[in-house]
Amino acid sequence: MSIAFKEWRIICDALQTGRQSIILRKGGIAEGRGGFSFDQPEFFLFPTLFHEQLKSVRIDPDSVDPALRESLSGEGTPEPAEVRIELFVRLERAAVLRDWAEVAAL
């Protein structure tokens, strides 16, 4: 398997520890008219790191691993030269949701 989906490291951590079981995507201009979609039913998650992550997600910062929290704050060490890819995903369902009530129910 050589296919990976780039995802924020904080989301990968939440999935790996069981605090989260779903990935939601908000479509944007970059996805074109067809929107975002998955081409593969199985793939690895490639964890990425952005300093804005803690400001952009709704999570209790104290629930994040301290080493991860430090690296996300921008005050820790830079992203390592090597990235561990540990999470394998099987796509259960992909759908376009247009009603906020459906999203909120998830």
List keywords for this structure.
106 residues; 24% helix; alpha+beta; 4 helices; three-stranded mixed β-sheet
Structural summary, described in words:
The protein has about 110 residues and is of the alpha+beta class. Helix content is about 25%, strand content about 15%. It is globular and about 35 Å long.
Put simply, the count of helices is 4
| Quantity of strands, as a count | 3
Strand fraction band? 15-25%
Strand arrangement within the widest β-sheet reads 1-2-3
The biggest beta sheet reads:
3 strands, mixed
Helix content: 10-25%
- Strand and helix order: EHEHHEH
Low-confidence runs:
none
Q: Mean pLDDT score, rounded?
A: 77
What's the structural blueprint in terms of helices and strands?
Elements lengths: L3 E5 H8 L25 E7 L4 H4 L9 H7 L14 E4 L9 H6 L1
Parallel strand pairs: 1-2
Antiparallel strand pairs: 2-3
